[in-house]
Amino acid sequence: MKTITDDVVITQAAYLHDYVINFSFNDGSTKIIDFHPFLTSPHQNPGIKKYLDVTRFKKFVIKRGQDISWNNYEMCFPFPDFANKNG
After folding, report:
1. b/e per residue, 29-42, with b = 16+ CB within 10 A?
2. Residue 66 to residues 28, 29, 35, Cα–Cα distance (Å)
3. In what order do the strands lie in the sheet containing 20-25?
4. CB 52 within 8 A of CB 40
5. Which of 13, 20, 4, 24 has the alpha carbon at shortest distance from 81?
6. Phi, psi of 10 (to 5 degrees)
7. Tens digits of per-residue pLDDT, 16-69?
8. Rg of the Cα atoms in the chain
9. Contact 11/25 with Cβ under 8 angstroms?
10. 45: DSSP letter
């Protein structure tokens, strides 16, 4: 898989199922990420566990084409860092 760089931005993000989101980028690439391992990590901040409620999880937004955010940055991932680690 090609490394996602800072000049690549998210053009679309589509919820697929459970805790899985499909991302499309301005370079034509796509990436599917399952957030379940992160949300259920035993060392996870207990406040993040509320996003195991799929209704809440679905309410993400893309900020600046680079961050996926829930509830105004209550939970957020800088996408180039996260995508390159979980591919």
Report:
1. eebebebeebbeee
2. 15, 14, 17
3. 10-17, 20-25, 30-34
4. yes
5. 4
6. -75, 130
7. 999 999 999 999 989 999 999 989 998 888 888 999 999 999 999 998 888 899
8. 12
9. yes
10. -
